[in-house]
Q: What sequence folds into this?
DNA sequence: TACAATGACACA
DNA sequence: TACGTGTGTCATTGTA
């Protein structure tokens, strides 16, 4: 990269030497890529976003940025309109040391809008630019579908920045960024907002990298799993059912009176069961399990296998796995709570058994770490409830809880706490929640205050200040008219109200857990980059992230270093997000060749992923 | 014919 | 009374 020979070198490297920390310490650098070709424009900035000197034009953006990245002590924070557009484009050409930090205008904008009571307004650079200038705000373009097998992707990829024609993108970017920095400083807790924006932006980097690198996926192992479950792959294309599935349908038909039946049609299945004298409200598994009829277990088995065939079978692999990697598209902030969503391939719903097909390359291993009991620990840390903190100081929070309040009955302690966090008040759980309220008043007070806020139309926020969506206009309408009249709408309104209470009750926990998880992977990414590797390309990489669980693909000899990085990252996230709380957020780490084996790990403990 | 809603089940 | 939160994806079914 640096120090190459051709005549472009002087221009390419000009920005870095000219801007060493001594001469002009640029804390940040705004970047815009030319719409076509390899060039772009850079604008060094102060931390607050004030331009330092004139903008720079470079013919080779990747080389210029790589050179900047080497400037001690840490390289700048890159400021750009959207990671998922710019960084994704640069990644294939970036050298081994990837960009360390960024500020993503499109990810930061909705976080700030929500804090400013403008939830859901358009978030593109052009929209922010228009708001800044009091001009009509362009709507965001719908995000495209994942480009798994689309043959017209990059050529016609629309410019999503939504800037008015003739606007200089670098000028707009610099102005909007400076304004965002000002708005961050104006929030109720600037330090936390700053952390939230940095974590969200780091998430953008990680999502792009994981989409680029992909989760190692073995076609052989996947095939073996499918053949074992479904029988050999049908030759006649995807229309045909695999043998075990076809046999199951025949058996089912027999058991239901012999007439042809499509088990994928709930209506037909219900009718057929009714003819057998079995009346069912739906074809849900848990209902079928209670039915004493030979067709019921067949139906359950059919559903299980059919789902695997349809959602993660051979057709799925052909659509989503290329060159031994499953490459979904991760959508940072795709869930209101700050969790990620994904597009394409159902990345966040890979069934447990299928994880046996996620196999490390030869000589490599998967390090799988999940934060056990994350949400109750978050509640303990958020509320500072002394009893819950005592429980959370132990390895198993539910056991601690049981010891404090349920005579050692762990199952009841767990059920009660989950009920309290999710808003379940019916049946036995209601009584358990009552016990919790007595023993852990601060913790229960926190979730119940959140519920009341939601029920009355208010908004709640996560630890780092992510704000939940406000109620819709229809919701407010219904509630107000019900309050006015006690008419027929009252029941609906009351149901709405309680439903929103459950949502806000859960939001403070789920979103604060997402705060922690985001800070954790950001810290982990930075720490992984510091692990020395003997072969330049062979370094540990984040390859999967699912709410409270992370997978690192690493050369086998670095697995121990990765484990240490994981545990240090968890500790760092606790400190950053929850300050000096005594609650711990232990990461359960396992190392194995396949995701499934690493997940199962030591199978002596009950699994409590949420 | 194309799209939207529904039901079901996968994940945390 | 009785109610757990948040997602994505598929096939079927209903509607424009």
A:
């Amino acid at each position: 990269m640096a120090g190459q020979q051709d005549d472009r070198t002087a221009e390419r490297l000009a920005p870095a030497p000219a801007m060493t920390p001594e001469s002009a310490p640029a804390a940040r650098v705004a970047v815009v890529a030319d719409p076509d070709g390899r060039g772009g424009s850079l604008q060094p900035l102060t931390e607050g976003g004030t331009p330092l000197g004139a903008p720079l034009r470079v013919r080779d953006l990747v080389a210029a940025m790589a050179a900047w990245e080497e400037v001690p002590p840490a390289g700048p924070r890159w400021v750009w309109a959207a990671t998922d557009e710019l960084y994704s484009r640069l990644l294939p050409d970036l050298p081994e040391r990837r960009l360390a930090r960024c500020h993503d205008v499109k990810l930061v904008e909705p976080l700030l809008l929500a804090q400013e009571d403008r939830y859901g307004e358009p978030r593109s650079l052009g929209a922010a630019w228009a708001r800044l200038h009091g001009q009509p705000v362009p709507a965001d373009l719908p995000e495209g579908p994942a480009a798994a097998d689309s043959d017209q992707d990059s050529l016609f990829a629309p410019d999503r920045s939504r800037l008015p024609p003739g606007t200089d993108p670098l000028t707009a970017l610099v102005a909007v960024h400076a304004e965002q920095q000002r708005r961050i400083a104006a929030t109720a807790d600037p330090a936390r907002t700053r952390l939230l924006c940095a974590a969200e932006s780091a998430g953008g980097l990680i999502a792009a990298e994981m989409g680029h690198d992909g989760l190692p996926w073995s076609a052989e192992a996947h095939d073996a799993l499918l053949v074992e479950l479904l029988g050999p792959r049908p030759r006649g294309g995807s229309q045909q059912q695999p043998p075990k599935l076809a046999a199951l349908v025949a058996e089912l038909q027999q058991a239901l009176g012999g007439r042809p039946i499509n088990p994928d049609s709930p209506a037909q299945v219900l009718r057929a069961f009714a003819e057998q004298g079995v009346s069912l409200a739906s074809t849900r598994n848990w209902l079928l399990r209670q039915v004493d009829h030979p067709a019921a277990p067949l139906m359950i088995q059919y559903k299980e296998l059919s789902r695997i065939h349809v959602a993660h079978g051979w057709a799925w692999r052909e659509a989503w796995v290329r060159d031994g990697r499953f490459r979904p598209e991760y959508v940072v902030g795709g869930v209101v709570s700050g969790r990620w969503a994904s597009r394409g391939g159902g990345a966040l719903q890979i069934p447990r058994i299928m994880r046996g097909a996620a196999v490390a390359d030869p000589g490599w291993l998967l390090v799988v770490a999940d934060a056990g009991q994350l949400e109750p620990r978050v509640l303990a840390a958020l509320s500072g409830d002394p009893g819950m903190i005592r429980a959370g100081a132990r390895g198993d929070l539910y056991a601690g809880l049981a010891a404090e309040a349920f005579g050692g009955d762990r199952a009841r302690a767990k059920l009660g706490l989950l009920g309290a966090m999710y808003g379940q008040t019916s049946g036995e759980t209601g009584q358990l929640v009552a016990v919790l309220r007595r023993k852990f008043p601060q913790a229960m007070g926190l979730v119940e205050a959140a519920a009341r806020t939601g029920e009355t139309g208010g908004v709640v926020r996560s630890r780092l200040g992510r704000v939940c969506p406000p109620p819709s206009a229809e919701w407010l309408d219904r509630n107000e008219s019900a309050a006015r009249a006690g008419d027929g709408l009252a029941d609906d309104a009351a149901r709405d109200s309680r439903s929103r209470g459950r949502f806000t009750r859960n939001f403070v926990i789920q979103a604060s857990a997402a705060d922690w998880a985001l800070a954790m992977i950001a810290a982990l990414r930075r720490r992984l980059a510091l692990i020395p590797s003997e072969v330049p390309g062979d370094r540990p990489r984040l390859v999967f992230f699912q709410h409270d669980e992370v997978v690192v693909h690493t050369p086998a000899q670095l697995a121990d270093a990765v484990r240490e990085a994981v545990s240090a990252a968890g500790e760092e996230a606790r400190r950053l997000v929850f300050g000096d709380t005594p609650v711990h957020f232990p990461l359960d780490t396992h190392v194995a060749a396949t995701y499934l084996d690493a997940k199962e790990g030591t199978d002596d403990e009950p699994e409590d992923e949420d």
In short: The radius of gyration of chain A is 27 Å. Residues 262, 264-267, 307, 310-311, 334-337, 339-349, 418-419, 421-427, 429, 495, 498-499, 502-503, 505-507, 509-510, 547 of chain A lie near DNA strand C (CB under 10 Å from a C1').
